[in-house]
Amino acid sequence: MLQVWGKIWYKNQIYQSHTATDEHADWTEALRLESCIDEIIHALDLPRPIWFAQNHQEMQRFRQTKFHQDHFIEHFPYQSFEIEIVRTDEDDEE
Q1: Residue 91 pLDDT
Q2: Please, are residues 20 and 3 in contact by the beta-carbon 8 Å criterion?
Q3: Which of 35, 17, 18 is nearest to 26 (CA)?
Q4: What is the pLDDT along the chain (94 residues), one digit of tens a residue?
Q5: Which pairing describes strands 64-67 and 2-10: parallel, antiparallel, or unpaired?
């Protein structure tokens, strides 16, 4: 199971959040993460952010990353959008 928490930050507070879960154990982690991000941006009514190399590195090192206005083609009226991996299959094995 992969569980991802998405948060919209506005004026240094969590404005909205949504948690998505993916149960497809046979999918790659990248596909599972993308599935969760799709669910989160749909639930929070956000445009899809552009994924830079820095976001990939942050996800690998810290299990979280942040998106700002420069990550969106459409207008993004918030401070930031953050995603964080809350739980993975490896966490369940411990």
Answers
A1: 65
A2: yes
A3: 35
A4: 999 999 999 999 999 999 999 999 899 989 999 999 999 999 999 999 999 999 999 999 999 999 999 999 999 999 999 999 998 877 665 5
A5: unpaired
Are 78 and 16 a contacting pair, CB within 8 Å? no
pTM greater than 0.85: yes
Q: How many CB atoms lie within 10 A of CB 85?
A: 19
Distances (CA, A) of 28 to 8, 35, 73, 76, 80: 26, 11, 27, 30, 27
Place of tokens 């993916």: 22
Pair of tokens at residue 41: 């941006």
- DSSP three-state, residue 38: helix
Q: In terms of Cα–Cα distance, which of 10, 12, 34, 14 is closest to 24?
A: 34
Q: Is 56 helix (H, G, I), strand (E, B) or coil?
A: helix
